[in-house]
Here is the input.
Amino acid sequence: MATTSGERRGLVAAAKVDYCGLVPHALLINPSFGSLFSGRVRRYNRRFPPLCLLHVAGAFRERGWTVRVIDERAEPGALLRASPGDADLVVLALSPLDRWQCPNVDFDALDTTVARLPHDRLVVYGAQVTTRPEWTLDRLGVSRGVVGEPEAAMCALAVGEREVPALVQWDGVHCTTAEPAPLASLDALPFPAFDLLDARRYRYEVLGDRLALFELTRGCPWRCRFCLLSMYGKKYRRKTIDRMMVEIRAAWAAGFRTAYFQDLEFTIDHTLVTALCEALRRSGLPLRWACQTRPDTVDAALLTVMRAAGCELIHFGVESGVPAIVERTDKGQSLDAVRRAVAEARAVGMRTLCYFLLGLPGESLADMHATLRFAEALGPTYASFQVATPYPGTPFHAEVFGEGGEPFPDHFPGPLSAPDLRALARQFTVSYHLGARGLRRRLKDGGVRSAGREAALLIRYAAS
Here is the structure.
Protein backbone atom coordinates (compact mmCIF):
# COMPACT_ATOMS: atom_id res chain seq x y z
CA MET A 1 0.00 0.00 0.00
CA ALA A 2 1.32 3.49 -0.88
CA THR A 3 2.61 5.70 1.91
CA THR A 4 0.74 8.97 2.33
CA SER A 5 2.46 12.33 2.63
CA GLY A 6 1.49 12.58 6.28
CA GLU A 7 2.89 9.12 7.00
CA ARG A 8 6.12 10.03 5.23
CA ARG A 9 6.50 13.11 7.39
CA GLY A 10 5.88 11.05 10.48
CA LEU A 11 8.62 8.66 9.46
CA VAL A 12 10.99 11.55 8.77
CA ALA A 13 10.25 13.14 12.14
CA ALA A 14 10.63 9.87 14.01
CA ALA A 15 13.73 8.61 12.23
CA LYS A 16 15.54 11.97 12.12
CA VAL A 17 18.22 10.64 9.78
CA ASP A 18 16.66 7.62 8.07
CA TYR A 19 14.66 9.15 5.24
CA CYS A 20 14.21 5.74 3.63
CA GLY A 21 14.00 7.29 0.18
CA LEU A 22 10.50 8.58 0.99
CA VAL A 23 11.05 12.32 0.66
CA PRO A 24 9.44 13.47 -2.59
CA HIS A 25 9.85 17.24 -2.30
CA ALA A 26 12.64 19.45 -0.98
CA LEU A 27 12.48 23.17 -0.24
CA LEU A 28 15.86 24.94 -0.33
CA ILE A 29 16.13 28.40 1.22
CA ASN A 30 18.73 31.16 1.05
CA PRO A 31 17.59 33.51 3.84
CA SER A 32 17.67 37.28 3.94
CA PHE A 33 19.82 38.99 6.55
CA GLY A 34 18.13 42.34 6.03
CA SER A 35 18.66 45.27 3.71
CA LEU A 36 21.47 45.63 1.19
CA PHE A 37 23.83 46.75 3.98
CA SER A 38 22.90 45.17 7.28
CA GLY A 39 24.01 43.81 10.61
CA ARG A 40 26.65 44.63 13.15
CA VAL A 41 29.45 44.62 10.58
CA ARG A 42 27.39 46.28 7.82
CA ARG A 43 27.66 43.24 5.60
CA TYR A 44 27.01 43.90 1.90
CA ASN A 45 24.23 41.44 1.03
CA ARG A 46 24.92 41.19 -2.67
CA ARG A 47 22.34 39.54 -4.91
CA PHE A 48 24.57 36.65 -5.90
CA PRO A 49 22.99 33.30 -6.81
CA PRO A 50 23.37 30.65 -4.05
CA LEU A 51 25.55 28.30 -6.11
CA CYS A 52 25.95 25.67 -3.39
CA LEU A 53 22.15 25.47 -3.03
CA LEU A 54 21.95 24.89 -6.78
CA HIS A 55 24.37 21.96 -6.36
CA VAL A 56 22.13 20.65 -3.58
CA ALA A 57 19.09 21.08 -5.83
CA GLY A 58 20.92 19.11 -8.49
CA ALA A 59 21.59 16.29 -6.01
CA PHE A 60 17.88 15.93 -5.26
CA ARG A 61 16.85 16.27 -8.88
CA GLU A 62 19.26 13.58 -10.03
CA ARG A 63 17.45 11.22 -7.67
CA GLY A 64 13.96 12.02 -8.88
CA TRP A 65 12.82 14.57 -6.30
CA THR A 66 10.95 17.76 -6.97
CA VAL A 67 12.81 20.82 -5.75
CA ARG A 68 12.04 24.46 -5.13
CA VAL A 69 14.62 27.15 -4.34
CA ILE A 70 13.59 30.27 -2.43
CA ASP A 71 16.19 33.02 -2.38
CA GLU A 72 15.04 35.72 0.01
CA ARG A 73 18.21 37.69 -0.60
CA ALA A 74 17.12 38.20 -4.21
CA GLU A 75 13.35 38.14 -3.57
CA PRO A 76 12.55 39.49 -0.09
CA GLY A 77 9.32 38.11 1.33
CA ALA A 78 9.23 35.07 -0.99
CA LEU A 79 9.01 32.71 1.98
CA LEU A 80 5.81 34.40 3.13
CA ARG A 81 4.19 33.37 -0.14
CA ALA A 82 5.47 29.80 0.07
CA SER A 83 4.09 26.80 1.95
CA PRO A 84 7.12 25.32 3.74
CA GLY A 85 4.86 22.96 5.67
CA ASP A 86 4.18 21.08 2.43
CA ALA A 87 7.83 20.13 2.02
CA ASP A 88 9.16 16.85 3.30
CA LEU A 89 12.66 18.26 3.73
CA VAL A 90 13.70 21.88 4.20
CA VAL A 91 17.33 22.93 3.75
CA LEU A 92 18.40 26.35 5.06
CA ALA A 93 21.74 27.74 3.88
CA LEU A 94 23.03 29.88 6.75
CA SER A 95 25.85 30.95 4.45
CA PRO A 96 25.74 30.23 0.71
CA LEU A 97 28.98 29.81 -1.24
CA ASP A 98 29.74 33.52 -1.56
CA ARG A 99 29.52 33.73 2.25
CA TRP A 100 31.56 30.64 3.16
CA GLN A 101 34.60 32.82 3.80
CA CYS A 102 32.75 35.77 5.39
CA PRO A 103 29.40 34.59 6.83
CA ASN A 104 26.79 36.87 8.34
CA VAL A 105 26.94 36.69 12.13
CA ASP A 106 23.65 38.47 12.88
CA PHE A 107 21.60 35.53 14.09
CA ASP A 108 18.67 37.71 15.15
CA ALA A 109 17.91 38.23 11.45
CA LEU A 110 17.31 34.47 11.09
CA ASP A 111 14.75 34.12 13.88
CA THR A 112 11.71 35.04 11.78
CA THR A 113 12.77 32.74 8.96
CA VAL A 114 13.45 29.76 11.22
CA ALA A 115 10.14 30.27 13.05
CA ARG A 116 8.24 29.75 9.78
CA LEU A 117 9.87 26.41 8.99
CA PRO A 118 8.88 22.88 10.10
CA HIS A 119 11.66 22.02 12.56
CA ASP A 120 11.13 18.27 12.32
CA ARG A 121 12.09 18.44 8.62
CA LEU A 122 14.71 21.20 8.79
CA VAL A 123 18.46 20.83 8.14
CA VAL A 124 20.83 23.80 8.18
CA TYR A 125 24.37 24.17 6.87
CA GLY A 126 26.99 26.87 6.52
CA ALA A 127 30.11 28.32 8.08
CA GLN A 128 28.28 29.17 11.32
CA VAL A 129 27.22 25.60 12.07
CA THR A 130 30.58 24.27 10.81
CA THR A 131 32.64 26.40 13.21
CA ARG A 132 30.28 26.37 16.22
CA PRO A 133 27.72 23.56 15.71
CA GLU A 134 26.31 23.28 19.23
CA TRP A 135 26.11 27.04 19.80
CA THR A 136 24.51 27.69 16.40
CA LEU A 137 21.91 24.92 16.61
CA ASP A 138 21.02 25.92 20.16
CA ARG A 139 20.77 29.60 19.25
CA LEU A 140 18.46 28.88 16.31
CA GLY A 141 16.47 26.16 18.06
CA VAL A 142 17.27 23.70 15.26
CA SER A 143 18.05 20.04 15.83
CA ARG A 144 20.06 19.11 12.73
CA GLY A 145 22.94 20.65 10.83
CA VAL A 146 25.62 19.72 8.32
CA VAL A 147 29.25 20.72 8.88
CA GLY A 148 31.54 21.50 5.96
CA GLU A 149 30.60 21.26 2.31
CA PRO A 150 26.93 20.31 1.97
CA GLU A 151 26.89 18.33 -1.26
CA ALA A 152 27.89 14.87 0.03
CA ALA A 153 25.49 15.02 2.96
CA MET A 154 22.63 16.07 0.70
CA CYS A 155 23.36 13.24 -1.71
CA ALA A 156 23.16 10.83 1.24
CA LEU A 157 19.84 12.33 2.33
CA ALA A 158 18.57 12.07 -1.22
CA VAL A 159 18.98 8.29 -1.31
CA GLY A 160 17.93 7.71 2.30
CA GLU A 161 21.25 6.54 3.69
CA ARG A 162 21.17 5.68 7.39
CA GLU A 163 24.60 7.22 8.01
CA VAL A 164 24.64 10.75 6.68
CA PRO A 165 28.17 12.18 6.56
CA ALA A 166 28.82 15.45 8.41
CA LEU A 167 25.40 15.50 10.10
CA VAL A 168 25.29 16.80 13.68
CA GLN A 169 22.22 16.58 15.92
CA TRP A 170 21.27 18.69 18.93
CA ASP A 171 18.59 17.66 21.42
CA GLY A 172 18.80 20.73 23.64
CA VAL A 173 21.30 19.08 25.98
CA HIS A 174 23.78 17.09 23.91
CA CYS A 175 25.22 17.66 20.46
CA THR A 176 26.62 14.82 18.40
CA THR A 177 29.93 15.41 16.68
CA ALA A 178 30.75 14.86 13.04
CA GLU A 179 33.64 15.48 10.73
CA PRO A 180 33.12 17.18 7.36
CA ALA A 181 32.57 14.73 4.53
CA PRO A 182 35.61 13.66 2.48
CA LEU A 183 36.39 16.25 -0.16
CA ALA A 184 34.94 15.31 -3.53
CA SER A 185 36.27 16.06 -6.99
CA LEU A 186 34.68 19.26 -8.28
CA ASP A 187 33.70 17.41 -11.45
CA ALA A 188 31.76 14.94 -9.28
CA LEU A 189 29.57 17.61 -7.69
CA PRO A 190 25.87 17.48 -8.56
CA PHE A 191 25.16 19.65 -11.59
CA PRO A 192 23.88 23.09 -10.47
CA ALA A 193 20.19 23.68 -11.29
CA PHE A 194 20.53 27.18 -12.77
CA ASP A 195 17.06 26.99 -14.29
CA LEU A 196 15.44 27.04 -10.83
CA LEU A 197 16.40 30.71 -10.47
CA ASP A 198 15.11 33.78 -12.26
CA ALA A 199 18.28 35.28 -13.74
CA ARG A 200 16.68 38.74 -13.79
CA ARG A 201 16.82 38.92 -9.99
CA TYR A 202 20.62 38.72 -9.77
CA ARG A 203 23.13 41.47 -10.26
CA TYR A 204 26.44 42.87 -9.18
CA GLU A 205 26.22 46.63 -9.12
CA VAL A 206 29.74 47.17 -10.41
CA LEU A 207 29.52 44.54 -13.17
CA GLY A 208 26.00 44.06 -14.46
CA ASP A 209 22.65 42.29 -14.38
CA ARG A 210 21.67 38.63 -14.83
CA LEU A 211 24.67 37.57 -12.79
CA ALA A 212 25.68 33.92 -12.43
CA LEU A 213 28.09 32.53 -9.88
CA PHE A 214 30.75 30.05 -11.00
CA GLU A 215 33.55 28.14 -9.31
CA LEU A 216 36.60 26.93 -11.23
CA THR A 217 38.54 25.93 -8.12
CA ARG A 218 37.74 25.41 -4.45
CA GLY A 219 40.00 26.06 -1.48
CA CYS A 220 43.18 28.05 -0.92
CA PRO A 221 46.79 26.94 -0.30
CA TRP A 222 47.54 30.01 1.85
CA ARG A 223 46.66 30.24 5.54
CA CYS A 224 46.19 33.92 6.35
CA ARG A 225 45.49 34.38 10.06
CA PHE A 226 42.25 36.31 9.54
CA CYS A 227 40.78 34.06 6.86
CA LEU A 228 37.99 31.54 7.51
CA LEU A 229 38.52 28.35 5.52
CA SER A 230 36.50 25.86 7.60
CA MET A 231 34.03 25.18 4.77
CA TYR A 232 36.75 24.38 2.23
CA GLY A 233 38.96 21.77 3.80
CA LYS A 234 42.73 21.74 3.29
CA LYS A 235 42.88 20.52 -0.30
CA TYR A 236 42.97 22.90 -3.27
CA ARG A 237 40.83 21.40 -6.04
CA ARG A 238 40.40 22.23 -9.72
CA LYS A 239 37.48 21.69 -12.06
CA THR A 240 38.14 20.50 -15.60
CA ILE A 241 37.54 23.00 -18.38
CA ASP A 242 35.02 20.66 -20.05
CA ARG A 243 32.88 20.56 -16.89
CA MET A 244 33.23 24.32 -16.37
CA MET A 245 32.09 25.11 -19.90
CA VAL A 246 29.05 22.83 -19.57
CA GLU A 247 28.02 24.83 -16.50
CA ILE A 248 28.64 28.14 -18.23
CA ARG A 249 26.52 27.13 -21.23
CA ALA A 250 23.73 25.92 -18.94
CA ALA A 251 23.74 29.22 -17.05
CA TRP A 252 23.65 31.12 -20.34
CA ALA A 253 20.68 29.02 -21.48
CA ALA A 254 18.94 29.91 -18.20
CA GLY A 255 19.29 33.61 -18.98
CA PHE A 256 22.46 34.64 -17.13
CA ARG A 257 24.70 37.08 -18.98
CA THR A 258 27.39 38.19 -16.51
CA ALA A 259 29.33 36.11 -14.01
CA TYR A 260 31.50 36.19 -10.92
CA PHE A 261 34.01 33.42 -10.30
CA GLN A 262 33.81 32.83 -6.56
CA ASP A 263 37.21 31.09 -6.34
CA LEU A 264 39.18 32.33 -3.35
CA GLU A 265 42.31 32.64 -5.50
CA PHE A 266 41.29 32.43 -9.15
CA THR A 267 44.71 32.90 -10.78
CA ILE A 268 46.98 30.49 -8.90
CA ASP A 269 47.08 28.06 -11.85
CA HIS A 270 47.92 30.12 -14.95
CA THR A 271 47.61 27.11 -17.23
CA LEU A 272 44.07 26.37 -16.02
CA VAL A 273 42.93 29.99 -16.28
CA THR A 274 44.43 30.34 -19.75
CA ALA A 275 42.64 27.18 -20.88
CA LEU A 276 39.35 28.54 -19.55
CA CYS A 277 39.87 31.84 -21.36
CA GLU A 278 40.62 30.03 -24.61
CA ALA A 279 37.48 27.93 -24.19
CA LEU A 280 35.38 31.02 -23.51
CA ARG A 281 36.67 32.69 -26.67
CA ARG A 282 35.99 29.57 -28.75
CA SER A 283 32.46 29.33 -27.35
CA GLY A 284 31.44 32.66 -28.83
CA LEU A 285 29.46 33.52 -25.68
CA PRO A 286 29.87 37.26 -24.92
CA LEU A 287 30.12 36.59 -21.19
CA ARG A 288 31.25 39.54 -19.08
CA TRP A 289 32.86 38.37 -15.88
CA ALA A 290 34.84 39.17 -12.75
CA CYS A 291 37.02 37.24 -10.32
CA GLN A 292 39.00 37.64 -7.12
CA THR A 293 42.62 36.70 -6.44
CA ARG A 294 45.94 37.61 -4.85
CA PRO A 295 47.88 40.43 -6.51
CA ASP A 296 51.07 38.37 -6.52
CA THR A 297 49.54 35.58 -8.64
CA VAL A 298 48.92 37.65 -11.79
CA ASP A 299 51.17 39.03 -14.47
CA ALA A 300 50.65 41.15 -17.58
CA ALA A 301 50.46 38.14 -19.93
CA LEU A 302 47.74 36.38 -17.92
CA LEU A 303 45.73 39.58 -17.43
CA THR A 304 45.84 40.23 -21.18
CA VAL A 305 44.43 36.76 -21.90
CA MET A 306 41.72 37.20 -19.26
CA ARG A 307 40.68 40.60 -20.58
CA ALA A 308 40.39 39.25 -24.11
CA ALA A 309 38.08 36.50 -22.78
CA GLY A 310 35.64 38.96 -21.17
CA CYS A 311 37.10 39.64 -17.71
CA GLU A 312 36.19 43.27 -16.96
CA LEU A 313 36.80 43.48 -13.22
CA ILE A 314 39.33 41.87 -10.90
CA HIS A 315 39.25 41.93 -7.10
CA PHE A 316 42.47 41.94 -5.10
CA GLY A 317 42.83 41.18 -1.40
CA VAL A 318 45.22 43.84 -0.08
CA GLU A 319 44.10 44.04 3.59
CA SER A 320 46.47 46.81 4.75
CA GLY A 321 48.81 49.48 3.45
CA VAL A 322 51.20 48.96 6.38
CA PRO A 323 53.87 46.26 5.77
CA ALA A 324 54.08 45.29 9.46
CA ILE A 325 50.33 44.63 9.63
CA VAL A 326 50.40 42.59 6.42
CA GLU A 327 53.31 40.57 7.80
CA ARG A 328 51.38 39.87 11.00
CA THR A 329 48.54 38.33 8.99
CA ASP A 330 50.91 35.71 7.47
CA LYS A 331 49.63 36.73 4.04
CA GLY A 332 53.15 36.75 2.60
CA GLN A 333 52.42 39.53 0.15
CA SER A 334 54.33 42.72 -0.57
CA LEU A 335 52.88 46.15 -1.26
CA ASP A 336 55.07 46.32 -4.37
CA ALA A 337 53.23 43.27 -5.72
CA VAL A 338 49.94 45.05 -5.09
CA ARG A 339 51.10 48.16 -6.94
CA ARG A 340 52.32 46.12 -9.89
CA ALA A 341 49.11 44.06 -10.17
CA VAL A 342 46.80 47.07 -10.06
CA ALA A 343 48.90 48.92 -12.65
CA GLU A 344 49.04 45.90 -14.99
CA ALA A 345 45.29 45.27 -14.72
CA ARG A 346 44.62 48.93 -15.50
CA ALA A 347 46.99 48.76 -18.49
CA VAL A 348 45.00 45.93 -20.13
CA GLY A 349 41.69 47.74 -19.61
CA MET A 350 40.38 46.00 -16.47
CA ARG A 351 38.70 47.75 -13.60
CA THR A 352 40.08 46.87 -10.17
CA LEU A 353 38.58 46.51 -6.70
CA CYS A 354 40.83 46.25 -3.66
CA TYR A 355 39.73 44.94 -0.26
CA PHE A 356 41.08 46.51 2.92
CA LEU A 357 40.48 45.42 6.53
CA LEU A 358 40.32 47.81 9.47
CA GLY A 359 40.85 46.75 13.08
CA LEU A 360 43.21 43.81 12.60
CA PRO A 361 45.02 42.71 15.78
CA GLY A 362 47.85 45.09 16.62
CA GLU A 363 46.63 47.79 14.24
CA SER A 364 46.62 51.39 15.45
CA LEU A 365 44.42 54.24 14.29
CA ALA A 366 47.47 55.70 12.55
CA ASP A 367 47.91 52.40 10.67
CA MET A 368 44.32 52.59 9.45
CA HIS A 369 44.81 56.08 8.10
CA ALA A 370 48.04 54.90 6.46
CA THR A 371 45.99 52.22 4.70
CA LEU A 372 43.64 54.89 3.34
CA ARG A 373 46.61 56.89 2.04
CA PHE A 374 48.02 53.75 0.41
CA ALA A 375 44.67 53.09 -1.28
CA GLU A 376 44.49 56.64 -2.57
CA ALA A 377 48.02 56.42 -3.99
CA LEU A 378 47.29 52.97 -5.45
CA GLY A 379 44.17 54.23 -7.21
CA PRO A 380 42.06 51.10 -7.87
CA THR A 381 38.69 51.75 -9.48
CA TYR A 382 37.02 50.72 -6.23
CA ALA A 383 38.25 50.35 -2.66
CA SER A 384 36.28 48.35 -0.10
CA PHE A 385 37.06 49.11 3.54
CA GLN A 386 35.59 46.60 5.98
CA VAL A 387 35.88 45.95 9.70
CA ALA A 388 38.00 42.84 10.33
CA THR A 389 35.65 40.16 11.67
CA PRO A 390 37.08 37.63 14.20
CA TYR A 391 35.61 34.43 12.79
CA PRO A 392 35.86 31.31 14.96
CA GLY A 393 38.10 28.76 13.31
CA THR A 394 40.70 31.35 12.32
CA PRO A 395 44.12 31.71 13.99
CA PHE A 396 43.44 35.32 14.95
CA HIS A 397 40.19 34.36 16.75
CA ALA A 398 41.95 31.63 18.72
CA GLU A 399 44.85 33.94 19.54
CA VAL A 400 42.70 36.85 20.74
CA PHE A 401 39.61 35.17 22.22
CA GLY A 402 40.77 31.64 23.07
CA GLU A 403 38.90 28.43 22.39
CA GLY A 404 36.19 29.17 24.93
CA GLY A 405 35.75 32.82 24.03
CA GLU A 406 32.86 34.64 22.41
CA PRO A 407 31.76 32.55 19.42
CA PHE A 408 30.93 35.32 16.95
CA PRO A 409 32.36 38.71 18.07
CA ASP A 410 31.98 41.61 15.67
CA HIS A 411 35.47 43.12 16.03
CA PHE A 412 38.89 42.62 17.57
CA PRO A 413 39.76 44.58 20.73
CA GLY A 414 41.77 47.62 19.77
CA PRO A 415 41.91 51.41 19.79
CA LEU A 416 38.36 51.78 18.40
CA SER A 417 35.01 50.35 19.46
CA ALA A 418 32.93 48.37 16.98
CA PRO A 419 30.65 51.36 16.19
CA ASP A 420 33.67 53.62 15.70
CA LEU A 421 35.33 51.08 13.40
CA ARG A 422 32.17 50.82 11.32
CA ALA A 423 31.95 54.60 11.12
CA LEU A 424 35.59 54.81 10.01
CA ALA A 425 35.10 52.13 7.34
CA ARG A 426 32.09 54.06 6.04
CA GLN A 427 34.03 57.33 6.10
CA PHE A 428 36.97 55.84 4.19
CA THR A 429 34.76 54.16 1.59
CA VAL A 430 32.66 57.24 0.91
CA SER A 431 35.58 59.67 0.84
CA TYR A 432 37.55 57.41 -1.52
CA HIS A 433 34.73 57.10 -4.06
CA LEU A 434 32.88 60.39 -3.84
CA GLY A 435 35.93 62.65 -3.81
CA ALA A 436 36.84 64.41 -7.04
CA ARG A 437 39.67 61.98 -7.84
CA GLY A 438 37.47 58.94 -7.23
CA LEU A 439 34.66 60.27 -9.41
CA ARG A 440 37.08 61.00 -12.26
CA ARG A 441 38.55 57.52 -11.95
CA ARG A 442 35.19 55.79 -12.21
CA LEU A 443 33.97 57.99 -15.04
CA LYS A 444 37.10 57.08 -16.97
CA ASP A 445 36.90 53.35 -16.20
CA GLY A 446 33.16 52.74 -16.36
CA GLY A 447 31.42 55.66 -18.02
CA VAL A 448 28.66 58.00 -16.86
CA ARG A 449 25.93 55.38 -16.47
CA SER A 450 28.12 53.05 -14.43
CA ALA A 451 29.40 55.87 -12.24
CA GLY A 452 25.86 57.07 -11.55
CA ARG A 453 24.70 53.63 -10.50
CA GLU A 454 27.71 53.19 -8.25
CA ALA A 455 27.18 56.61 -6.66
CA ALA A 456 23.63 55.60 -5.80
CA LEU A 457 24.96 52.43 -4.17
CA LEU A 458 27.44 54.44 -2.12
CA ILE A 459 24.73 56.82 -0.98
CA ARG A 460 22.71 53.84 0.26
CA TYR A 461 25.78 52.54 2.07
CA ALA A 462 26.50 55.90 3.68
CA ALA A 463 22.92 56.13 4.91
CA SER A 464 22.80 52.57 6.28
